[in-house]
Specification:
- By secondary structure, the protein is α+β, with helices and mostly antiparallel strands.
- Helix content is 29%, strand content 15%.
- It is built from 3 helices and 4 strands, in the order ββαββαα.
- The chain has helices at residues 19-26, 60-74, 88-91; strands at 2-3, 16-17, 38-42, 55-59.
- The strands form 2 sheets. A two-stranded antiparallel sheet has the order 1-2. It has a two-stranded antiparallel sheet with strand order 3-4.
- It is elongated, with a radius of gyration of 15 Å.
Length: 92
C-alpha cells in the first residue's frame, strides 16, 4: 500500500492505494470497478510482482473460475490434455 493522500482519486478512506493499482492506472488502464465486478489480478499469484505484464483485469467470475481450477489442480482433480498448472490463457 502506498500513502497517496486522502484526495487521490484511488485512495481508500485512510489515504492509501495498492501499488499494483497505481501501476495499472499509470499505464493508461481503467481501474477495476467493484460495481462492474472486476478485479486486478497478479498473473503469477505473487502479489509483490507488480510488473505491468503480470497484471490483468478480470471479471469476478473469471477470477473465481481461475482460482477454483488451481484448487482442483492442487487436489489432483485437474483434467486437461497435458495436465499443466492452470493459467489464464487455458482458462478462457
Amino acid at each position: 500500500m502506498v500513502n497517496v493522500g486522502l484526495t487521490h482519486p484511488h485512495a481508500d478512506s485512510k489515504g492509501f492505494c495498492p501499488l499494483h493499482v497505481l501501476i495499472w492506472v499509470a499505464a493508461g488502464n481503467e481501474r477495476a470497478r467493484k460495481k462492474n465486478r472486476q478485479l486486478l489480478h497478479h498473473r503469477n499469484e505473487n502479489k509483490k510482482d507488480n510488473r505491468l505484464e503480470n497484471l490483468v483485469l478480470l471479471k469476478h467470475d473469471e477470477h473465481t473460475d481461475y482460482h477454483n481450477a488451481i484448487s482442483r489442480f492442487r487436489k489432483q482433480e485437474w483434467s486437461s490434455e497435458d495436465d499443466t498448472y492452470p493459467n489464464l490463457e487455458n482458462m478462457k
